[in-house]
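Section 5: illustrative case.
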């Protein structure tokens, strides 16, 4: 015998929407004011001063006791004597050459040795006394200062938004029963095509 009933069970269909709770924080942005005071540099320099004392050098040459006037007068007289002596030497050299008593080479050699002696005689035996003072450098530097003033809000604005849960029923539960057989007539004689 075939099954005459077809039973279908349809379950409930529920949709759930959840909105999470929120805590909103509203704080104004901080501001900053910047100010600066300029720095500076101050430089103080004391240049070097050199002191040269030639007293000992002049004394080693025999000029230490002379003032400028005496020195100029003595040197002028000495120059005249040297000029006369030079003329006399030239005359003597000329006579020696004329009489064949000397050769130009021997005269040049004797003058070369005398020239070196003269140069050495005019060099000071003592050096100058050199001293100095000053030579200081002072630097005073003041750095630039930077000041920052922050303005922040002491209180924060808080807002709480509660969460929600929403249930949406899209389909209610139900049971569907379907008869799959032939119709049953009562009395049986009422069925079409009935035969006894």
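Designed sequence:
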């Amino acid at each position: 015998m075939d099954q005459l009933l077809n039973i279908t069970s349809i379950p409930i269909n529920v949709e759930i929407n959840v909105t999470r709770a929120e805590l909103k924080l509203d704080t104004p942005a901080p501001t900053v004011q910047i100010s600066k005071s300029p720095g500076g540099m101050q430089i103080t320099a004391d240049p070097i001063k050199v002191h040269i004392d030639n007293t000992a050098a002049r004394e080693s040459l025999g000029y230490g006791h002379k003032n400028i006037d005496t020195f100029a007068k003595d040197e002028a007289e000495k120059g005249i004597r040297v000029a006369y002596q030079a003329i006399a030497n030239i005359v003597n050299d000329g006579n020696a050459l004329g009489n064949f008593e000397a050769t130009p080479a021997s005269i040049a050699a004797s003058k070369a040795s005398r020239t070196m002696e003269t140069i050495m005689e005019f060099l000071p035996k003592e050096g100058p006394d050199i001293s100095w003072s000053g030579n200081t450098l002072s630097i005073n530097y003041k750095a630039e200062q930077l000041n920052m003033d922050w303005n922040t809000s002491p209180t924060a604005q808080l807002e709480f938004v509660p969460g929600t849960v929403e249930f949406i029923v899209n389909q209610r539960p139900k049971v569907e029963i379907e008869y799959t057989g032939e119709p049953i007539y009562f009395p049986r004689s009422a069925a079409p095509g009935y035969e006894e």
